[in-house]
Amino acid sequence: GLGGGILITLVLSGIGGIFLTRQAMQPIEESFQRLKQFTADASHELRSPLMAIKINAELPLEYPMEIGPKDAEKFQAIASATNQMTRLTEDLLFLARTDKVPNGDWNSLNLTSILENLLLLYKPQAQAKQINLISQLTENLYLMGDSVQLTRLFSNLIENALHYTPLEGVIEIKTTRVGSQIYVKVQDTGMGIAPEHIDKVFERFWRADKSRSYNSGGSGLGLAIAQAIAHNHSGLITVTGQLGVGSCFTVRLPAS
Ligand code: ADP
């Protein structure tokens, strides 16, 4: 399997410093691609049955007089669990597709306007939590990329900041350009991340608080997706922070 292939590669290169030719890498690369394709296919196939469950669970809720309150509760539980699963399968599908570099939608993009649109989009949510959503954006930052992916990357970061920052906090989005690199910082005054967890946050399904986050609606894939998108754009995503003080996610992307 894939794990075995990687293990053998690591052991071989570790012991003998053996140089792996492209030919030797090919079966590993192929089984890796097959695994991704499987994830993409599986999540795609799960979409329709999940939609059917969701519709059938939500329909009776529209006729509360015909079902008892106990049944309504059960249908509600089915509907929200189905929503959680739908989100999970959508995220898995997105992740599996994102890793397929580069696709057809590669364009010259104005990152400043992507971020401005997101600021408008999340303004009501910030206001609802009395969070001060502020920005300091450099004009006309252009880069080559996929606008759907980049929008997703930054919306994941902003949604997390909104989610993990308590009432009356501050979220700041800042851009700078240093030479040929664009830096986007999303900083919040939320719960922060423990130093021993800094390396873990980008792992698939990793969460600081397993119990609490389960019901939060997130899939646990948001930052894994953000990282895959950054890598797909030859970029990098890093995080700093302090527990109880806040977090700061920095995305570095090559400018065009
Ligand atoms: P989710 O938010 O759905 O749990 P993510 O992949 O987006 O999944 O984030 C993984 C984990 O990283 C979160 O569960 C949380 O513990 C931590 N995290 C992410 N963003 C922040 C943030 N802005 N502040 C504090 N912790 C965060």
Helices and strands in order:
Blueprint: H1 2-16, H2 22-58, H3 69-98, E1 107-110, H4 111-128, E2 132-136, E3 142-145, H5 147-164, E4 170-178, E5 181-188, H6 210-214, H7 222-232, E6 236-242, E7 246-254
Parallel strand pairs: 2-4
Antiparallel strand pairs: 1-3, 4-5, 5-7, 6-7
Helix pairs in contact: 2-3, 3-7, 4-5, 5-7
The structure holds adenosine-5'-diphosphate.
The site of adenosine-5'-diphosphate (ADP) has 22 residues, from helix 5 and helix 7.
Low-pLDDT runs of 5+ residues are none
- Residue fraction in strands: 15-25%
> Structural class of the helices, strands and pairings?
alpha+beta
Q: What are the bound molecules? A: adenosine-5'-diphosphate
In total, how many beta strands?
7
Rg on CA atoms, Å: 21 Å
Domain Histidine kinase: 41-256
GO cellular component, one term: plasma membrane
Keywords: Kinase, Membrane, Phosphoprotein, Plasmid, Transferase, Transmembrane, Transmembrane helix, Two-component regulatory system
Catalytic activity: ATP + protein L-histidine = ADP + protein N-phospho-L-histidine
Description of the structure:
- The chain has 7 helices and 7 strands, in the order H-H-H-E-H-E-E-H-E-E-H-H-E-E.
- It starts with a helix and ends with a strand.
- A hairpin with a 2-residue loop joins strand 4 and strand 5.
- The protein is globular, with a radius of gyration of 21 Å.
- By secondary structure, it is of the alpha+beta class.
- The structure holds adenosine-5'-diphosphate.
- Adenosine-5'-diphosphate binds at residues 156, 160-161, 164, 188, 190-193, 201, 206-208, 213, 218-224, 247.
- Adenosine-5'-diphosphate is lined by residues 156, 160-161, 164, 188, 190-193, 201, 206-208, 213, 218-224, 247.
- One of its GO terms (cellular component) is plasma membrane.
- Residues 41-256 form the Histidine kinase domain.
- Photoreceptor which exists in two forms that are reversibly interconvertible by light: the R form that absorbs maximally in the red region of the spectrum and the FR form that absorbs maximally in the far-red region.
